[in-house]
Amino acid sequence: MNPNLLVFSVLATLTVLSALGVVFFPNAVRSALSLVATFFLLAVLYFTLRADLLGISQIVVYAGAIMVLFLFVIMVLRLGSAAALAERSDPKRVIGDVLGIGFVVLVGSQIFAPLSGYELINAPGAYGQPQSIGKALFTDYGYPFEAVSVLLMVGIVGSILLAKRRIR
Fold first, then answer.
1. For the chain, what are the domain ranges?
2. pLDDT tens digit string along 100-140?
3. What is the overall mean pLDDT for the chain?
4. In the 8-state DSSP scheme, what is residue 92?
5. Where are the alpha helices (DSSP H) in 25-90?
């Protein structure tokens, strides 16, 4: 087994486990902290791909700014584990769990099947450099980039409105 593939497999496994922690922790604060771990592990994966700018951006933007916003909303809305424990007896949760596990198995089969014939592919010379990322973001992916910024703005406005409603 290739050492690069081994490192990737360990990091990917840890990332998936921390992402599952986001979904399965009943406490909202623990779930958010598991999301921080997922963001940091994704940044490490970017660093292993030699995409340093993406790794640093992942840490600064997501693990920094977005998670501060999430934790602020969790603290303002006082989300606790009481609501999550009340939902455990719901039959929709069992159906959701079965469908979620089926989806994970389906995606996993599509990811791990091609890895059996794994070859190391060299990335282009400008891969992960700020110039190539900026050119791609503002030419080919300009509209999706703006759509994501609008979605983030809607999330911020929604969290403020929820916080105001809860305070009153």
1. 3-92, 129-168
2. 888 878 777 766 666 666 665 666 777 777 888 888 888 88
3. 79
4. H
5. 28-48, 52-57, 67-77, 82-86
Q: Which CATH number fits domain 3-92: 3.40.1400.10, 1.20.120.1200, 3.20.20.70, 2.102.10.10?
A: 1.20.120.1200
CB burial readout 30-52, b (16+ within 10 A) else e: ebbbbbbbbbbbbbbbbbeeebe
Q: Two tokens at 49?
A: 């791909």
Give 151-168 pLDDT, tens digit per residue. Answer: 989 988 887 888 777 666
pTM: 0.59
Structure tokens at 110: 């599509």
**Residue 59 or 67, more confident:** 59
Count the neighbouring beta carbons within 10 Å of the beta carbon of residue 91: 7
Q: How far apart are the C-alpha atoms of 142 and 30, rounded to whole Å?
A: 35
